[in-house]
Amino acid sequence: MKVEVIRAWPRRFETAALVLAEGATVAQAVAAAGFDDDSDSVAYAVFGLRADADTVLREGDRVELLRPLQIDPKEARRRRAEDRPLKKK
Questions:
Q1: Which of 18, 33, 38, 68 has most Cβ atoms within 10 angstroms of its Cβ?
Q2: Homologous superfamily of domain range 2-83
């Protein structure tokens, strides 16, 4: 089966297209892509949905290596809102 493994950083990414045996897991796909030594990864996802290392993959799946958040999403929104000028009516 064909799957894709992707890892990303700000402003760049790496991807690997693989052909694996039926029943392959997320961990096997990450290892086959050569990304198993990525110490920055904290979790995995398949098409954006959180997955465990032992999750069985299906044809066409995209495995994503997830990194820790750099800032709390609520705090990032607060900062963006503070930077915007107020609209006058």
A1: 33
A2: Beta-grasp domain (3.10.20.30)
